[in-house]
């Protein structure tokens, strides 16, 4: 049986997910990259800008305007690293954590509606497989 390449299938799913998430992000006044940053910092540990850029797959120079905006809005903190004054440590503020939780809850609800298109027996297997392949 012929099928599309995995890249083509993943790209179509990616476009569908982005289209689903854009209105949610717009309602909360955050860009996709801003949400990616909030998500990357949501684990709670303080991280350097360079480590964050690596973990989310972003060019650290292009990340700076996103960080500036989030800091100006009081959603993240960015302080000099006491161990390396050239580096900056990042963290979520209470407002940043609250915004992240609200956006993530709406995105997860939308994902649940999308996943409802699959038979219940396939949902967990899909998520496990996707996590393994993306890992």
UniProtKB/TrEMBL annotation:
<dbReference type="InterPro" id="IPR039422">
    <property type="entry name" value="MarR/SlyA-like"/>
</dbReference>
<dbReference type="Pfam" id="PF12802">
    <property type="entry name" value="MarR_2"/>
</dbReference>
<dbReference type="InterPro" id="IPR036390">
    <property type="entry name" value="WH_DNA-bd_sf"/>
</dbReference>
<dbReference type="InterPro" id="IPR000835">
    <property type="entry name" value="HTH_MarR-typ"/>
</dbReference>
<feature type="domain" description="HTH marR-type">
    <location>
        <begin position="3"/>
        <end position="135"/>
    </location>
</feature>
<dbReference type="GO" id="GO:0006950">
    <property type="term" value="P:response to stress"/>
</dbReference>
<dbReference type="InterPro" id="IPR036388">
    <property type="entry name" value="WH-like_DNA-bd_sf"/>
</dbReference>
<protein>
    <submittedName>
        <fullName>Transcriptional regulator, MarR family protein</fullName>
    </submittedName>
</protein>
<dbReference type="GO" id="GO:0003700">
    <property type="term" value="F:DNA-binding transcription factor activity"/>
</dbReference>
């Amino acid at each position: 049986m012929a099928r599309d390449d995995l890249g083509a299938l993943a790209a179509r799913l990616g476009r569908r997910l982005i289209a689903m998430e854009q209105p949610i992000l717009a309602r909360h006044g955050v860009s996709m990259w801003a949400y990616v940053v909030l998500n990357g910092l949501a684990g709670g540990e303080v991280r350097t800008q360079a480590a964050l850029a690596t973990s989310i797959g972003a060019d650290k120079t292009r990340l700076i305007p996103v960080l500036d905006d989030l800091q100006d809005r009081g959603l993240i903190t960015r302080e000099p690293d006491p161990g390396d004054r050239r580096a900056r440590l990042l963290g979520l503020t209470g407002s940043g954590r609250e915004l992240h939780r609200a956006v993530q809850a709406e995105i997860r609800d939308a994902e649940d509606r999308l996943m409802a298109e699959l038979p219940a027996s396939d949902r967990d297997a899909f998520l496990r497989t996707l996590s393994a392949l993306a890992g």
